[in-house]
Structures are given as structure tokens and as C-alpha cells.
Amino acid sequence: MSAAGKPKRIRLGMVGGGRDAFIGGVHRIASRIDDHFELVAGAFSSTIEKSKLSGLDLGIAEDRSYGSYKEMAIREARLKEGIEAVSIVTPNHLHFAVAKEFLKRGIHVICDKPLTSTASDAKKFLKLVESSDSLFVLTHNYTAYPMIRQARDIIHSKELGEPRVVQVEYAQDWLSTDLENTDQKQASWRVDPERSGAGGCIGDIGTHAFNLAGFVTGLQLESLCADLHTFVEGRQLDDNVHIMLRYKGGAKGMLWSSQVAPGNENGLRLRVYGSKGGIEWSQEEPNKLWYTPLGEPTRLLTRSGPGANDAANAVSRIPAGHPEGYLEGFATLYSETAEAIYAARDGKSVENLCPGVKEGYEGIGFISAAIASSKKNGGWVKL
Amino acid sequence: MSAAGKPKRIRLGMVGGGRDAFIGGVHRIASRIDDHFELVAGAFSSTIEKSKLSGLDLGIAEDRSYGSYKEMAIREARLKEGIEAVSIVTPNHLHFAVAKEFLKRGIHVICDKPLTSTASDAKKFLKLVESSDSLFVLTHNYTAYPMIRQARDIIHSKELGEPRVVQVEYAQDWLSTDLENTDQKQASWRVDPERSGAGGCIGDIGTHAFNLAGFVTGLQLESLCADLHTFVEGRQLDDNVHIMLRYKGGAKGMLWSSQVAPGNENGLRLRVYGSKGGIEWSQEEPNKLWYTPLGEPTRLLTRSGPGANDAANAVSRIPAGHPEGYLEGFATLYSETAEAIYAARDGKSVENLCPGVKEGYEGIGFISAAIASSKKNGGWVKL
Amino acid sequence: MSAAGKPKRIRLGMVGGGRDAFIGGVHRIASRIDDHFELVAGAFSSTIEKSKLSGLDLGIAEDRSYGSYKEMAIREARLKEGIEAVSIVTPNHLHFAVAKEFLKRGIHVICDKPLTSTASDAKKFLKLVESSDSLFVLTHNYTAYPMIRQARDIIHSKELGEPRVVQVEYAQDWLSTDLENTDQKQASWRVDPERSGAGGCIGDIGTHAFNLAGFVTGLQLESLCADLHTFVEGRQLDDNVHIMLRYKGGAKGMLWSSQVAPGNENGLRLRVYGSKGGIEWSQEEPNKLWYTPLGEPTRLLTRSGPGANDAANAVSRIPAGHPEGYLEGFATLYSETAEAIYAARDGKSVENLCPGVKEGYEGIGFISAAIASSKKNGGWVKL
Amino acid sequence: MSAAGKPKRIRLGMVGGGRDAFIGGVHRIASRIDDHFELVAGAFSSTIEKSKLSGLDLGIAEDRSYGSYKEMAIREARLKEGIEAVSIVTPNHLHFAVAKEFLKRGIHVICDKPLTSTASDAKKFLKLVESSDSLFVLTHNYTAYPMIRQARDIIHSKELGEPRVVQVEYAQDWLSTDLENTDQKQASWRVDPERSGAGGCIGDIGTHAFNLAGFVTGLQLESLCADLHTFVEGRQLDDNVHIMLRYKGGAKGMLWSSQVAPGNENGLRLRVYGSKGGIEWSQEEPNKLWYTPLGEPTRLLTRSGPGANDAANAVSRIPAGHPEGYLEGFATLYSETAEAIYAARDGKSVENLCPGVKEGYEGIGFISAAIASSKKNGGWVKL
Questions:
Q1: What pTM, to 2 d.p., does this model score?
Q2: Domain D10-142+334-356's class?
């Protein structure tokens, strides 16, 4: 920290994330953990009444709880102490329209994944962000776990030799029944093509798996061969995803994501094998990374432990054995974004590892390719 | 949350926790996670210069960084918007003196453990708090993990039948060498009788193990038989603790704590066996609780999972499989304290599970008894 | 055991399994564990000298160590106390020719997998066995683990509801380098198309994975879509196998097998998810079966433990917590075969779960389909 | 194996181990696994009728099933092809009397633990064996697990530096209720002072824990401080054991053994920490050894894996990842005994690691000291 002291907290707004929402609360906690943000405004719901109630819950000044994101963007941009950044935590189909209003007014955007619900929106989104001076971060939060950063570093420094095999999976069980026909709000929009897009499970969690594998290995997906399926009767979108992967340079992979796998709570797991070693990581035990140099015993690398490297230590808060979890990983994305915003205040820019619009665009491309492959009964489709 | 909206954040001060300290940072993050506190003042170090530098790091207004806790207590008590609560994160020998200054001025105290460095201070501390109108919370943070709350509930509701055997341990490895002779600040005060008291490992982590076992089982320790030892040459305080336990009502136990056990990072583990079942929990995988009804297969109970009970769910933030960690557990203590402070603002009081001065006093009694037993070569000593 | 006492041990011969071989020794131990067999003859190597040396190691009478399996079959069939059964543990390409000599002389055959090195041999093999009065057992040994038997029973009794997703994998790392170019005998024949057939990894271990998934679920594979690959330069056969599976009735699956995955020793793992629950099993911890009824906590079912069912208990030898391993599972196949041979002595037949020629034939069909799919770049191929 | 070929199998007898017994069957399988023994005679039960029935089950010639061990010893010693060794698997109180009959007739003895049911027998036993030319092996079978051999080697070669802390435990749950009042034969003799001796849980499994800790560390116990307890009402012997340990040279330890700990099937676990590293091992996952060099990441050493050393490899049968279990460990004791008997046939002797009468005598001393300490309410008692 510079002698100049801690920078003033970033004024943050939020679109979506009202009562009953899950991910909005996560973003709020994540924004607070390292004390770089202050939530001061929001369009938490689609009606002004509901939005104000949520604002009240959150201690937001009444006149800064908005009934529409557009109104919020217009007014906050004019306020002297208006928001500098906004978190978008709406269903997918709104991401683009909302982001546009803020980006064009010079407000930085932190947006939940997947980027959009349609490929055409994704293309426009890419252009929009690339032509904007504002920052855009897509919360593929799993990339920010310390041991994921270490895994990435291990692979990028060629400690595994040439990557050969990538096995990634993301399995859950909460949609094993037709939960969407109850009043479970989390379920209903996720299986609705209008709000989620053409991908169900593949969009909701498959994109996380795809993104994580790419982030850690640095490999570019060349083509894929997919079999998407819906097991729960009446459901409109896929709830199980089987994909074979071919990466540029010759590595091969498999991706499984499912929301109908009883016993799996949030089973995101990544295994990468190269000519000189292998690594294994599981999101439910995020402080551990298993590393096997070929021909040697497997090592258990722990966050902040004796085998932790600089990449991991840079995003760790507390000592080994004191588990950091999901919220801390999420918070790291916020904090890296904050550093970028601090720099932007001074007209500077900083490098960081936060996923952005490019990763979001690739994610939508991944969804499209998988759906295309599956529709034509499984042939290889180029990305 | 009431329709009246979120209460105003509690104005918090801190004593200790300057640059290089570990636990101060933990308290600060914990205080922010659920957004009930705002850190506005501090006596972070023993000199005004250092304190102001830490204050600068933390975004504290310059005139509220103090060089002495007494000055801080006096001035903050007089301010119109002075602190309502203070976190004490100094070495143990200062806890009592610091707490006294704030408690007597009506400022609530959140204090790190162990309560004091001497038994006589502990007794005075007990009286002081009992005669005070202010709240006092001792941060035995491990009691606030959701699955610990569930374990407690399982035992209190007699699902294990009569408790018979309690195996608790807390093993670390970071003091396996004479780290205190390097410039590692965390090590040096912990092995210094002046600042820590007569107990080394037993005070630093043994008390956590003792407290946790009592919290979960509800059992009162009747007597103990201890063998404390110092393995690292030149060290003044114990670094390995072996204790046999006898609880009122007939349960027996063992407590091991060590800071010289290579491979153990923060290995706090609790196992309780009763006439009808058993439970096992490990701090390094805090979201899991293993529960075996006698004669049935072991169940894996997970935080927010299908077997989680009300006690666990009440202190969980996010869904199953999204690991919460050490900071969230710590934050729960802060949030329960906040609820009590909110009530106190209205002259009300609320029940909660936060450890207080009684638990702190018992902890010092435990340390004293263990040292006494060990000194007389291991006989049973009553608590 | 009947009052008539223990039947006389079955006189067993062996083809293959000389010095340096791995699986021959396994068969021998497996045949002894439950004391139903006595090894009395063998054609352990392809020369009479080597065969006699191996026979000497094993305590075989000199005149019953043969230099050719044909000679052995002829002579043993004529001996009054000649062998009743033979174990075939040669490289794959010899299985059929060897089995033929014994089967046609009324000698029961226990044969290692995969059935043959070519599809045409497999077809002939199927006919041969079906027209023979002798017993034929294919040692897909993993089917005999107690918790695999329990998993099968759970699924067959519909406790998981309708099976939806089958994730099976078999990963090893021992062929991560070109071990075949050293004098490692285990490696050299396995990657030689002449001796192994057209499949490398897929034949050696992929067939085990395929077989196990079918055994446990009872599902028939309808079609597959494969991507086989050779990572180690100069190797002639595949060393990594990615396959998507479609089962009759609508279940979907994935199969990964690899011999180039550093950190995986013998990583055969099976996960099956249905509409009402899921199970998970790993060969390296064979005494455990994880079972999750949908919406309930996961149970850890253990061999001989409180949740073990009849199917598991029928093939367990010792109490819970006393681990049985690979050799015991293998021994169970031998013992079930022995029961069938005892019955055959009396002209009777018994039902058992031992894999036979049908499973072997399906395995070769699986290999062929996978190679065909992979060659045409991944389309779905019917079985 | 020498060019001379496999030695003739050792003719083995058994005392005890009739129908319903557990450990007799284990000994029989163990004796067969490596093919060094042939069971040819037995006094399986205390009546000739029952003994013959068991003999029939086992394929023993009728005239070699005896109704009394003495008769068996006398007759077998006279037979030309009489037994060379005998396995004693009776309740504890008979070990000495039985062994005496065979040892004095030159028949080698393999005896289950604990050595005897009384300290006076143990002393006599020690003298008897020391003055005998025959071999005596006590089946502390857990010492023969490969990774236990590796652990021993790691410690003996000072890779952990000076041993400091030994945590050993052996927990089961099968006696959590008064099973002895049902017709469970395994339970009834184990809690009967007449047949087991003055120790219950401490004799049955505590001695295993004590022995294993000594075997692995090479440390001699100097004194102990114990708290033995009986939780199940009406039970005559202890069912839970808490002991603090002091080893010669300054290491300290704790031993917990319990048969009333629900969820523990056969939970023998050993952890040893020294000045330079630590190891952890659990009997229920015997193929794994966790090894942490101080200040480095923990390594997972696996049986036959890349980190396995000569000591482990010498007693391994099959490759890494193919789990060996309890029976194989037990078999190793038998095979090491066989090598010693083969040598004895030629009048030679060989060194091996099999526990013998000395270890048995120490075990009885351990039981006596623990009971003495517990009776006088926990003071330190010298061994």
C-alpha cells in the first residue's frame, strides 16, 4: 500500500440482486471483503417498489434505489458523487442492454456470466466494450482461487511439459427434479430460454468449466463434439452436457456438466495432464492443489502453505490451514478490478487476470458450438 | 430484516492490529462481511507514528488514529459519533487493561482469546464484565462454523445419546523450529511469558480446543491430567500439550495441541462419541460434518446441504458446495454481536451463542489447571 | 458348507504367467485365497526351458511344466488326475487359440481380458464357448469387488430410479513415456498391435471401464462417439481414450481411459446418477461406496459395514474396516468359478455373476466401435 | 527364488479357529496367499465332534482333526509327515499352555496376540521361548503393511530428525452396546476376564496400537499415565483407554483405544512427528503414507508407487493403485515366518521383522502398567 494511504472506496451500484436472488448477495459480500467498494445505488428489481424494499434492506439511500437500470444510469452519471462502477447480476438476457447504458456513460461494469443469452448480442457486446474506455469484468469467479492461480502458473511455466489431456467437469444435483415448476426463483429463469438463452446447464455452469480449463491451461479450444440432453421431463433446456474437446496444439479433453447428478453440490473439478506431470483441483476443497511430477510422489500443495507460489500468495489473505472459500475467491476479482479502477482514476491502466468481454465472447461461442454439434448429432464443430 | 430497513452500521474501533499483525486483519474482514460495522478509529500500534501509518493504510481519518488506547477510549467516548464497539487484538497481557478503559465508558468490547495472560487478571475481568452494561465477546471463532453449530445441536438434542468420549486436538507445525529467534513477529510474542502468560501452545491454541469441545458438547470439565512439554531448545513456553479430560457426568476425553507437528497447518479436529452415535469434524474442511448413528452408515452432512439443520442454516450465507471458510465463521461472531448491539441501542438484549467472559475465564482456568497438573507430574487437577 | 465337507480342490493349469509376468502371479494368488484350486501344471513360457524354470519356482512337478499349450492340453486331458481348469494369462492374441485347445477337451477356462486381439476371433470364440460344455470365465475382476456388487444391486433394485448419467474412467500414468522402448515387458506387448490387437489403452483398460459400467448399471450400450489418440511419439496404439456413450433406454455416459495421466496409478472410477439418487466408487478405495438418495445426505457404505447388503456380504471375507483389496476381488471370481466347477462335477450348473464370453465379445465390439468412430472423426457408431 | 526351486510347503496345524471364529479364518487365508504353508491338522474346537466338523469344512483328513491340542501336539510330533508349525488362535488365556506343548516338541509356533492373559504367564512364556530352538511369532499383523515398513525405515534413517510426538489410536465401535449379552461369540470372550485377562479393549486392540508405535518409531516406552474406563453397563473390562506416553529419549505420546466410538470400524492410526518432518498413516487406507518434510509440501507415498522404498517394496506383491489389504499384510508375517522355517530346516537362521515373544512380553507389561496407573488414579507408572 502506498504511503499515500488507502484510496477512497469505489462507489458501486448494482442492477438486479433484489430479495430472493442468490448471486447479488454474493457480489455484495465480495465487494466488501477487501474494503474497496461501497454500495450506494441500485436497480435491484424491475419495479420501483421492490427495488426500494431491497435498497432499504441494504441501507441504500432511498433516492438511489431505482426502478429501472436506465434511469439509474442516467441519474448516477450526472451526480457529483455518482457511482463509478456497476455490478450486473440480472438474468443473462439483460446483461448487454444494461451494460450498454453504463459503459456509454463511463461507468465501469462488473457483469455476471454468461455474457449474453444470444450470440448476436455477444458480438455487439464485444465491440461495445472494445470501443469503450470503461473497464469490463466478467465474474468467472473460479479463476480467482489461489490454487487455480498456482495451477495456471505451473502450467504456463511448463512444469507439466506439454499439456496432453484436460478433464474438466461441473456437476450439481439441484435440478434433478422439475424445481422450476415450484416457486424456486433460482430455477425458473435458469431453464427459461427467454431469459437464459439457448443453453441451460451449459450456459449456467458449463461455461464456468470451459472458462476455467482455458484460464488454467492457456489452451485455445479448436473444436468440440457435444451431446447435450434434457433428462427432466418438460424442461426446455439441457440439464446434462457431454463434450469432447480438441485444443490447438494437440491437447484433448472432456467436459461434463450436469445439474441432475445426485450427490454433487457444486462439483467443479479440473485435471490437467502433461508430458511431465499432472495436477488435480476440486472447487469444494479449493485450498488444495494436487501436483504430481511424473515419476515422483504426488504433492499436496496448500494455499499459503510451503509449496504455494507467488501467483497463489498474491491472492491469499490468511495463513495455511485457515480455509478461504468461495466468497474470498469472488472478492479477489472485485479487488483486482478495484486496483484497475484506482489506476483508471489516474488515467492509468494495470494488467490483471480478470476475465473480460473476450472470455465472455468465447464462452458464448462455446455454447453455440456445443448446441450446433449436439443438434447435428455430435460431429466436430470448430470454434 | 424488518421493514424499518437495515440499521445504521456500528462504529467500530480497534486496539492493536497494525502492520504485520495477523489477527487484526482477520477481525477487520470479519467485521465487514455482513456489513454491520464500519471501522472508524484505532490505536493500532503503541506509537502514534506507527498507529497513524496503519490508520492511513486502512482509510481511517487521521485524527482517529491514536497512539494510546486510553486516549482513544477517552476521546471516542466523548465524540458525538464516537465508536460504539472496540475490537481488542493485542497480545494477551494487554486484554484486560484495554477492555477496562472501554467497558467503563460504555463501549462494547470484542476481544481476542485467551482472555488474559494471568489468572488474577481473569478473575478481575470476569467481575468487570459482569458489572458492566456493555457487551463483551471473546472471539473463539471456531464456535461459529455452521457445522459446529449443527454438531452442538445434534448433541444437545441427545441424538448421540449420552456423550462418552471426546477427542479434541489442535495441531500446527509453524513453531517446529525456533522461529521466535528470527524476526517473525507472530512467533516472538506467542512464546514470551511476559506477553502471552504462563501458557504457550496451550494458551494460543489449546484454549480453542478446550473451548470448542465444551461449546459443542455442553459438558463441563471436572478435572484434567496434563503433560506439557517444550521441544524446541531455548523456548520458554510449552509447544506440545497432552491432556486427559474428565467431564462432569462421566464423559472422558483427550486433548492434544501442538505447534511442532510437521504437516499440520491448522489442524483443529473434534470427535465426540455417545451411546447412540458419533460425530467428527475438522476445521480444515469446515463445511463437512460426519455423523454416524450407531449401527447405521456414516452420513456426510454438508453446510446448506440436505442434512443441514436450522442451527447450521442460521449462520450460512451461500448454497451447499460453495465453501465458506475461516473468515465467514469469524464474521458470524461479529454479526451475532451486531445483532446484540442493535438490540442494546434500543435498550433490549438478545440471546446468542457468542463466547463471552465466562468462557474466557474458564479458558484461563483450564490453562492454570493444566500447568499445575503438569508441574506436579501429571496428577488429576480439578477445574 | 455342506456336511459332506469341503470338496476336493480343483486341479488347475496355467498358460502364460512365467517369470516377469504380472497378471499370472495375480491369478495364482487369487486361486489360492479361498482354497478351491491347486496349481499343478503349466505352459508358463513359450520355450520348454523357461517354462520349466517358472514351474520350478512355483513347485510344479517337472513333467507338468510344458513348452507348448497344445502339448499341455493334449497330455493333461489324458492324465487320470489331469487339470480340470486352466487359466490363460498370455498376451491377447493367443487367448482364442489357447482356449480352443482346452475347451474342446472338456477343460474349463479362466481367461484374462480382453477376449481377443481381433473381432473375427471374438466371433469365433463366442461360438466356440456357446457350443462347449465347459465353463468359460473372463477375468473382468473389478466386477467382483463387494461394493461393486452392492452398487449393482442398488441400481438393479431401482433405488436410483431411472439411470440417467454414467461417468466411468480408468486412468493410469505408467505409459506417459515410451516405456516400451526400454526392456519393460509389461509395456512392450501392450503397445504392440500384433499381440494386443488394434486397441492399446482402450483394450487394456478401457474394456474394464466399459465392462464395469455395464455390469453395475445393467445398461446395454447403444452407440458411442470416440476420440482415440496416441500422445507418446512413436507409439503404435492409442494411449488416451475419450468416448461419449448412449445407452439403450436413454442414459448417457462418458468414458475416459488413459495411460498418460501422471498421478493416476490405477484410477478406475464409476459414478452413476439416476432420477432418485447417485453412487460413486473408486477402485483405489474399493471398500467404500458413496450413495446419495436424492435430497438426503450422502452415505458412506462400507464393506461389511452397517449399510452393506447381501450382495456385498456374500463376497466379503472379513469385518468392516479390515480392508480387502484387489487380490480378494480377483479371488472372488475364482471362487465363484470354483462353485460352478464343483456343480459341473455333479453335472449341475449354478448361476453366478462371473463375466464370460458374452461380456468378452461385447468388449471386443466396444473396441471395434470406438476405433471405427475415431477413424471417421467422431461420429456415433452403433454397437 | 533359488534355482533349486520352491521349497516344499510347510505343514501347518491350527489350534482354535473353528466355525464362527474370526481370526482363525484370517490366519488360514494369510498362510495360503504366498503358498508357503499347507494346513494339514487342527484342534479347532474344544470337543472332538466340533473339531472334526470344522476339519471337514477345511478339507483336513479326519484323523488329523483333534479334540485336544495336547493330543494333537503329541501325535503330530511323532508322525513322519507331522506338522512343522502351528497357529494358535484361541482366546488369550490358552496361548501359553498351548504353545508350550508344541514348542517343547520342536514345532514352530505362530500365535495370536496378546501373548497371554496374565503377567505371570507372560514371564514364563518369555523364558520358554528363549530356551527353545523353535521359532515363535506373535501376529501383530499391522507391522507388516508395506507403508508401515516404509514409515519405520523413514524414522530409523532419521528423515524425521529426532522423534518428538507420537499420536496413536485404535478406535472401533462394535462394542458400543452390550453385545456380549447376545450370542455374539467374538464379543463374549473378549470382555470376559477369565479368557481375556485383566484388560479388555486395552488387550484386544490397545496392544496393537502400543506395538505399532514401538515398531515404527523404535522407541522404548519409559512410563505411562492411564485412564481406563468401562462405558457399557455391566461390562467387566475396560472399553475405552486413554493413555499419555513418555518414551526413553524424550519423545511424548498419546494412545487412545476404544471399542465404543460409533463410526470407527477399525480405526488404527499412527502419526509421528520429529524435528525434521512428520508422517501419518491409517489402517483403513493402508496403501498410503503421508510424509511431510518440515517446510515442504506433504507427499502422498503409495505402496509400489514412485516414492516407495526398499522396505515397502520387499513386502508388496502387486503394482501401485491395486490395493493390498489386511489379508496381504497378515500374509507377509506368514511368509517371513516361512523363510525363517525354510532356513531352520537347514539349521540356519534368518533375521526378520516379525514380532516375537519379546514384543508379546512388552505388550503384557504395557497392559499391566496401564491398569496399575488407572487403578491409582492416573499417576505415571514405569514400564
A1: 0.97
A2: alpha beta
